[in-house]
Amino acid sequence: MRLLTEGPEAFALRTALADHAQATLDIQTFMLGDDRAGRAVLKRMLDAAQRGVRVRLLLDDMTSVGKQELLAAFDSHPNIEVRVFNPVPAGRGSWLGYFLALAVDFDQRHRRMHNKLWLADGVVGITGGRNLSDEYFEVAPDDVNFNDLDVMAIGPVVSALSDSFDDYWNHPLAVPLRYFSQAPTSAWRDLLVKFSVDARQKKALSTQPSAQRFVGEAGQALLLSLEWAPAIAIWDRPEKLDVERYPALELTLLGQLGDAFRSLDQRLLLISPYVVPTPAGASYHEALADRGVSLTVITNSLESTDQPSLHGAYMPWRPVLLSHGARLFELRPRPPARDGPHASGEVSGLHIKAMAFDDDRVFIGTMNADPRSVWWNSEVGLLIDSPALGNELWSLAEQGMDPERSYEVLLSSDGRLLWRTEMEGRRVILNEEPGGAWRKFKAWFIRRLDIEHLL
């Protein structure tokens, strides 16, 4: 195992695996951007298909809206197949039509495949929070870049990740893209020409120098830096997205993590961009506190979140968590770049989905700490028994808890929330939640609706 904390490195490793795949390349993702990163991975997959590699791309259907022509051209290659999961059959030409069609069958169609896998030859795998788009690899030219985390794995656990991919690929909800959109059989050639022109005009994302770190002698050195540890691949069964109302807990990833939660002795770390505890989560935390287990939560602040509405669902739970001893840290936007500049835009938000159970077990995957991840989306991840990776994840958390990087939320003696941080080298305590009026309105508005169970 190896944790991939830096976006450019995580991207370069994916391209290196694609460039050196010999037989199969299986990619599963929630989001594929029509941007520099998205086009770069499509180019690498096309190059692999040209070498005779079988390429399978499984997308959540929502990511195909507005990209059907591009994806159909990609799908036209004889060694490539694209499937979309839980498709909306009508209104696919525009977002307006898509959402109108989704509303007609909302109970079924709002369930999304949130899994992310990158599997090369069935022997190397990557999973974690990153979608295939600029902002997840810290190369977006604007101010939206996410702090994210993946884990690379080799060994038997990759076979289990491949099984999870096949579970989704072969499920009836995974529909070949050609049922909705087809391109001429030679369209992929035009796509390669377009990608080549983009590269010459410097519009494409070039990672060749970075990717060299993972091949040849440098790649052999990488093997020596891996952490060898037992790991279990855990995923929601695809049937979870194909049942009426709530799925059975045993179909869910959270249900499979039950033993890890029950065996806690000292402390639990939860890192998630979205946190919606719900009554069940608050009761569980109270039970943890009664056992002497401490909880540390790192999430986005109202300033940094890309979903202020979701933050609104989290806000009422903070006094409850704090009153039972939890520590809450909310990431500030655009922290100072003490560790050197990022590849392009500055990191402006948190997208990591990870947990540390005590000091010797970690879970790295795609699951947010909200009802949508538990009940309505599908997720995947690795549960790893490793004191070394536990120490690495806690060290990463301590960076996030630095007062220059985050607000620590406190509960005053009279029940008010306070935000402790550091500004211009001085520790300060804020009496009002940081964030603009429009963000505060969106956070307030969501609490007026009875939809917490869907968030």
TrEMBL record:
PLD phosphodiesterase domain span: 109-136, 350-373
Record Gene3D superfamilies: Endonuclease Chain A
Pfam families found in the cross-reference section: PLDc_2
Superkingdom of the source species: Bacteria
PROSITE patterns for this protein: PLD (PS50035)
PANTHER family registered for this protein in UniProt: CARDIOLIPIN SYNTHASE (PTHR21248), CARDIOLIPIN SYNTHASE C (PTHR21248:SF12)
Full protein name: Phospholipase D family protein
The species this protein was found in: Litchfieldella qijiaojingensis
